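input
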Amino acid sequence: MAEGTGSKEDPWVLTTPPGSSSYSMYRDEAADPPTLVCRVGSTTLTYHLRAVDDLHAWLVEQGDWVPLGASDEKKAAAEGTVEAWGRSPDNPVGGWYGLRNGYRGRFGMYLPPLLEALGLAEVTHDPRNNAMRAI
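output
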């Protein structure tokens, strides 16, 4: 379970799947669109808040483990990964869940631990090549 309640004043404190770094996330429901704010050191990334429910629904459809495939925005995402789905024109938002141009990637790194903390998914925690599935 993540520390925090997910508010700006009490963000979720999470750890990347390999366990190599910690970061925080919180909901900004007043933003347009409603946003998940992810702080990694001095870097701020933002994602559609609906990504939590949309990703969980997609994982349920997949019915098995899905590789995370985390990569930066400027690098191609491996087909069939959480990262590729998070940028696909076929997902519910019709493209990137990341909202901040230049910082739209890493969906497959930062969203899976949140879904795990919320009790929606299991995530593997190996040094590399992690995966997740809905629970």
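quick obs: The chain has a mean pLDDT of 96.
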